[in-house]
Design a protein that fits this description.
Layout (H helix, E strand, L loop, with lengths): L2 H23 L1 H5 L6 H37 L7 H7 L2 H12 L5
Keywords: Membrane, Transmembrane, Transmembrane helix
Pfam family, one: DUF2834
Protein name: DUF2834 domain-containing protein
Length: 107
């Protein structure tokens, strides 16, 4: 198995393990129904946002690895603009930008 494939597999494991670990390690607000009181809702929302944050970090890291791997093969250097877009704005900006830059003819 190539290093790139092992990296993708490792990122898939991390991307799966982080949210599951957050739910299992603190089962209180993550597993029970959404609490309707203000204090309970605040604790639930905080834990949910931490989990979502780490999901987005793994997505951005995976997209960055993919962009760098493809740029190394295709020599489409302008596609590297998608890396800062991914980390500064988010994967919702970086992925479409990368796909746009990737589909242009490379000279």
């Amino acid at each position: 198995m190539s290093l790139l494939r092992m990296t993708y597999l490792a990122l898939a494991v991390v991307g799966t393990a982080l949210p599951v670990w957050r739910i299992v390690s603190e089962p209180g607000p993550a597993i029970r129904a959404i609490p309707w009181d203000r204090a309970g809702w605040s604790a639930y929302a905080d834990q949910y946002l931490v989990t979502v944050h780490w999901d987005w970090v793994v997505v951005a890291l995976t997209l960055t690895v993919w962009i760098l791997a493809e740029v190394a093969v295709r020599r489409n250097w302008s596609a590297l603009w998608a890396v800062p877009a991914t980390w500064v704005i988010g994967p919702s900006s970086g992925l479409p930008l990368y796909l746009f830059l990737r589909t242009r003819p490379v000279t």
